[in-house]
Amino acid sequence: MKIYFANALFSQADFEYNTRLVAELRQADPTLSIYLPQENAAINDKNAYANAEMIAQADTEQLTASDLVIAILDGPTIDVGVASEIGVAFAKQIPIIGLYTDSRQQGATNTQKIAALQQIAENQFHYLNLYTVGLIKSNGAIVNSTDALIKAIQEQTH
Questions:
Q1: What are phi and psi of 5, to 5 degrees?
Q2: What is the pTM of this model?
Q3: Tens digit of pLDDT for each residue in 26-62?
């Protein structure tokens, strides 16, 4: 199975997280072929040069040749590149698994948190763009842990 891994890759934290998570996925199932854009030095060696069209073409070729997209949804908002990749995957009917680990999704039944929503600027929960979430759910799923991600990938491969 060919998988496209979509996440931000410009901070050290994102770069290291991507490396660690993809290594864990590869170890869980060595038959997976995972494209991690940051490993493509032809377009992502930031000491070299690749223009916007070169980057779009290289990543889109990998994305549209994939059987599955993993999209990381964490951060203040969904990364704009990841949102674009979700849109392409949806248009090409490629299944998507979103990974959303933000701890603010917890406490959905806490009455104090729910009541706080009535006060301006007192949202105790994190918000994801519902259009983008809808694209994922239309042809995939959203999970909230690495274990659940591995299980969802296994379900896609069997």
A1: -100, 115
A2: 0.92
A3: 999 999 999 999 998 888 777 788 899 999 999 999 9
Write the single-letter amino acid at 126.
H
Phi and psi at residue 33, to the nearest 5°: -110, 105
List the domain range (segments joined by +) for residue 135: 2-157
CATH number of the domain residue 116 falls in? 3.40.50.450
In whole angstroms, how far apart are CA 131 and each of 68, 78, 90, 135? 20, 11, 12, 6
Q: Quickly list DSSP for 29-77.
A: -TT-EEE-GGG-HHHH-TTS---HHHHHHHHHHHHHT-SEEEEE--SSS
Domain count, the chain: 1
Cα 89 to Cα 6, 42, 69, 114, 136: the distances in Å are: 11, 23, 7, 34, 9
Question: Which of 150, 109, 117 has its CA nearest to residue 21?
Answer: 150
Tokens of 31: 């038959």
pLDDT, greater one: 126 or 100: 100
